[in-house]
Amino acid sequence: MIHIVTPVNAHQYSDAMEQVWRLRHDVFVMEKGWTDLAKPDRREIDQFDTPYAIHFLAMEDDRVVGYSRLLPTTRPHLLSDIMPQLCEGDLPCGPDTWEWTRQAVARSHRARGKAVNPVSIALLTGIVEWGLANGVRQLVLQMPTLYLLHVVQLHFRARPLGLPQPISGEDILAATAEFDARTLARLRGVRGDTASVLAPSTVQYLAA
């Protein structure tokens, strides 16, 4: 299930969020080599992990096996403050536009030989469910250029914001990805399950 963590319910997820910080360090520092994010305590927390961030946790029992974060574009976020060079025009901004960042899946849950990772698809499904319930219509993301086709295949209407640029050894592209009920239907079709992925205990925090 996907658990949504906001300031309203964060006290219930203190152990899970400790797992998140360590998962992020393992994936982004140890695996991807983003050494500027390295911390002696092996907890990857940045300046955008504020009370305005929304955390999506894929959990099996009490274990975090996947993670994503959304940031409001009405406040400082990665594209506005760290990588503005990826956007050649006006920065997408508004209450209906959120930045999707820090997607991470535990090594133990990466499906080899499959076109899509079940944990990644569940996380994205949860984000779209949350977005549709809260008046959000598009995501902003920075991604390797090859990922753009995958986004389109999942029935997002993706639009590049500029040309790819080399960042940390990869060609990275900024784009917006609009979604609607058809996107959710596509994601559920890929998962093979029409039920909500959101944990019932966190549904009450959808609009927090």
What is the chains' assembly state? single chain
Kindly report the average pLDDT value: 92
Sheet having the most strands: 8 strands, mixed
Estimate the global geometry from the Cα principal axes: globular
Number of strands: 8
Give the SSE string: EHEEHEHEHEEEHH
Strand content: 25-35%
> What is the radius of gyration?
16 Å
Give the termini separation: 19 Å
Relative helix content: 25-40%
Runs in which pLDDT lies below 50 for 5 or more consecutive residues are: none
Structural class: alpha+beta
Count the DSSP helices. 6
How would you describe this protein?
The chain has 208 residues and is of the alpha+beta class. The protein has 6 helices and 8 strands; from the N terminus they run E-H-E-E-H-E-H-E-H-E-E-E-H-H. Strands 1, 2, 3, 4, 5, 6, 7 and 8 form an 8-stranded mixed sheet that branches. Strand 7 (165-167) and strand 8 form a beta hairpin. The two termini are 19 Å apart.
Please name the defining characteristics of this protein.
208 residues, alpha+beta, eight-stranded mixed sheet
In short:
The chain is of the alpha+beta class and 208 residues long.
Question: Could you give the topology of this structure?
Answer:
Elements: E1 2-5, H1 14-31, E2 54-60, E3 63-72, H2 78-81, E4 97-105, H3 118-133, E5 138-144, H4 147-153, E6 157-160, E7 165-167, E8 170-178, H5 181-191, H6 200-203
